[in-house]
What we know:
1 helix; 126 residues; elongated; single chain; five-stranded mixed beta barrel; mainly beta
Amino acid sequence: MIYNARLEWKSDGIEEEVLLLINDVEIICFANVMPYEVKEGNYYRVDMIPNVFGDYDIKEVGRECLDCIARDPNKFSYKVTGWLLDNKIYSNGIVFEDDEFMFLFGYLNGRKVILNVDRIDVEFLF
């Protein structure tokens, strides 16, 4: 999905690691495409893509579970809890889109789920 995101910081240790603020949610992403110089504090159009290495891991959770985008503090991985509607998961005002969601997990359509994501990739757009 395409968002207008504020670049909070770029990592000194990992060249592709960036912290973005999207809809008041901070997300550490792997910026595999930065076709121009970006500066902290500025807003950029970005395309955000959930990246899963290997098999998808989506499970149904109870309706009482809060929507959240929770990062493993030592990795790029996240657990995304939200509503699966067609090929999108809606969580905290952010939408994660992947055609595999509907293809592999269509039986969970309309339900609250948790998705394990290995990395959230971001592409800075022109």
